[in-house]
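Project standup — Tuesday

K.O.: blocked on the structure for the chain from last sprint. Re-posting the sequence here as requested.
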Amino acid sequence: MSYNTENIRNIALAGHAGSGKTTLFEALLQAGGVIQSQGSVERGTTQSDTDSQEKARGHSIDSCIAGIDRAHCHINLIDTAGYADFRGATLASFAAVETVAVVVNAINGIEYGTRRMMERAKERGVARVLVVNKIDFEGARLGMLVDALREEFGNECLPVNLPAQGGKLVLDCFFHRDGTTDFSSLAEAHQRILDQVVEINENVMGTYLDAGEASLTPEQLHDAFEQCLREGHLVPICFVSARTGAGVNELLELADKLLPNPAEGNPPPFLNAENQPIDVSTDPAKHVIADVFKIVNDPFVGKLGVFRVWQGTIRKDTQLFIDDGRKPFKVGHLFRLSGKTHVEIDQAIPGDIAAVAKVEEIHFDAVLHDSHDEDRIHLTPLRFPQPMFGLALEPKHKGQEQKLSQALLRLSEEDPCFRMEHHKELNETVIRGLSDLHLKVMLERMKERYGVEVVTHPPRIAYRETIAGHAEGHHRHKKQTGGAGQFGEVFLRVEPLERGSGFEFVDAVKGGVIPGQFLPAIEKGVRQAMEHGAVAGFPLQDLRVTVYDGKYHPVDSKEVAFVSAGKKAFLDAVGKARPIVLEPIVDVEVAIPESNVGDVTGGLAGKRARILGTDTQRGGELVIRAQAPLAELTDYPTELKAMTGGRGRYSLDLSHYEPVPPPVQRQLSEAWKPKVEED
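H.V.: unblocked you, prediction finished:
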């Protein structure tokens, strides 16, 4: 099919686990003529859950892309994972679409994932649609659910269609007002949404008030509707049954007629080298600008970079640059993705989602362009949850260290919430993810794809150090070993900054007592000391260092002397500034059966946790929100499983750092055996 940018719709299906996103994805592909019959999640035959881990576990882990060609538009549809454990790939897809369709389980109602996806989509500035699925299931109270959605997310949430005949049929109420529905009134729903849409556009409102609804053209209604979506003035509510197909064609019609195309969505937040916003046009004749939002290491095709084209046209055999790289790569093959199938295409226009293969330098969030004018353009990064759950590991079999490193690198390329760290001082490799399940899946993939097995154990907690007071430090570094010597003297002061401020280095030297060329050496020495800590061997943060005096020798002063003097002066000051150890405090959300609430809250209280509140979900589930020290949660997956019979689940997200209790600081300090460095 040949199409232009105005014919494209980019939509991500998001929502809580179990809301039926993958089944809806299948139903939409079938209704769009992409597949002959729907696959089954239970049987592992869907277009999107193609990975062996997804088939074995019966739920999505990665995002999956497929296109639907209709008479008037091309729809790029992205199925995403619902579990919070795999949120990285889900959020990454938000950088490629104009619309996020948040799927809601009609039986369970508003769940944790519903709220999170609505928040993140709003934060990114994309249009939002609420898709109520499973409308034909017994026990679905759709009228009450609409009221709950409006109470939770605002009165701008309004049905654009309504179920009829017990959920067997769905009737449009934006373009029509006549018909019998299962709840509410089609005429009333029609009037509500029409009033909401026309009030945002003065021209449409004037026409509507002067000549009535009949005077409004479909184009005027579309423009006003699209403006409402773009400005967050309207969140349409749709009804579907992915199981029976009710409402599926109506959802495709909504995408076709009313959802924004790439030229209508909010402008992508691209920044220049000075971090100033820049305009990116959907003009296919301009320089190419595309953003890589997904990396796949395919065993057959090789490394695949999946991108969204924002400006210009990418053609086969053209040359592109990555970020500010000077070496271009040739687009030897250009692909459109359809599940696990890669279809070769000749070009990708603004709004298209496409992929290139076998480009090793390509990485997640890379900007692809064809002109050095765009060398330092970048897309405002998405906010991802911090991977707080960690495992230290080593290869099970000797001689696989290099193979392990390569496997971890490949896996971390694919998932923005999976990270690898190597601690030189401990010779320890640590992987971090969003949960124990997240890391377990990654380790199983590593074994299946790369043949690497590992032995794991708990890692060191990522403590930090800082200071609680002001102090001054001084050190004179002097060495004379025959011939030219070493000399450098530094006076500095330290003071604490607010949590999360990082580090500031201030030059307050006057009169040239320390020449300017030696200031970077002093900062280097300070940073070296900060890296290794002063109390318990953990990095220092949230402080300001001001160098205000010192001495130098015109012959013996060298960079190495001021590195050493800066380091020792800094440690002298920190020792007087009431150094303290900080521990990571995480936001914890625990979803459990209501019957286990006493055991779980009691268990959290015993881990120095602060209970912040609880949310009752439909289906007898409760979500406990708390804050707790990460160090106390090392064995929590096992404990929660035992308390809830395997029915509990949890997620962690870094909140802040705060001082450890004095007994813990004493214990950490005593366990630290700093090495005495010889100058």
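K.O.: great, moving the ticket to review. The two ends are 71 Å apart (CA to CA). Residues 300 and 357 are 10 Å apart (CA to CA).
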